[in-house]
Amino acid sequence: MAEFDRGRLIRNAQADPESPASIETNLLATGGMELLVNADLAGGVLGVGVVDVGGNLVEGYGIDDSMLSTYDDLRYLVSWTSHSALPLAGEYGLRFELDGGASLYAFELLPIVLPGDANEDGVVDGSDATILAANWLASDADWSMGDFNEDGIVNDIDATLMAANWSSAASASVSEPAALGMLAMGGIVLLCRWLRRNKKRNQKPNKKE
Ligand SMILES: [Ca+2]
Ligand SMILES: [Ca+2]
Predict the structure, then answer these.
(1) What proportions of the chain, in percent to the nearest 5, are helix, strand and coil?
(2) Residues that place a CB less than 5 A from ion ligand 2
């Protein structure tokens, strides 16, 4: 029986409460992707493994290595003990194992968004630096404003994250001459220093005579 709910598709659950349910997808392009699942754990367990063409679990992507972290009110982000996402180039299947009353409704592969990619267009470049600069030292900030470590403030921590991914694309192999990349990173550091100085000057309290 299919259940339709907000963002939910078909419910996969254990047919027999005594034994775990196992569901496997067809082969998917997993390079540069992260995995989100729409699931209701209900005190149970959802494990996710990655299998190769032959149906064997890929080392490091075993069901017991998988972990779920809350992504939003409906979804969990899946990671593995030594892998934060599915950067495996090629085609792999996903194996889901449900136990203890957990249900799986849908899964989704999303391109990995690099820290620094404020506008989420897959590349960290000048347009992201402009966004970061425009929101410099903003509080109550989010990713789209340049808060890449999600501590709510846009500052030099975020600028450093941006610099580390400068001009790199999330999935494609875009190469940039190293010298140009270094130049751009130097530019960001200078920009941040300037912004910091400028902000301090503006914030300096007026001394009473
Ligand atoms: Ca971008
Ligand atoms: Ca931050």
Answers:
(1) 25, 30, 50
(2) 147, 149, 151, 158
Distance CA 141, CA 155 (A): 10
Q: Is residue 42 in a domain?
A: yes
Claim to verify: residue 89 and residue 139 sit in the same structural domain: no
Angle at 201 between CA 195 and CA 205, to 5 degrees: 140
Dist. CA 142 → ligand 2 center (Å) = 8
Residues with CB under 5 A from ligand 1 (ion): 117, 119, 121, 128
Closest ligand (CA of 169): 1
Domain end position, chosen among 56, 79, 110: 110
Q: Rounded to the nearest whole angstrom, what is the distance from the C-alpha of residue 26 to the centroid of ligand 1?
A: 31
For the stretch 153-190, pLDDT in tens is 999 999 999 999 998 665 444 444 444 555 565 666 66
* Ligand of minimum distance to the alpha carbon of 166: 1
Out of 17-26, 50-59, 98-107, 173-182, pick the least confident.
Answer: 173-182
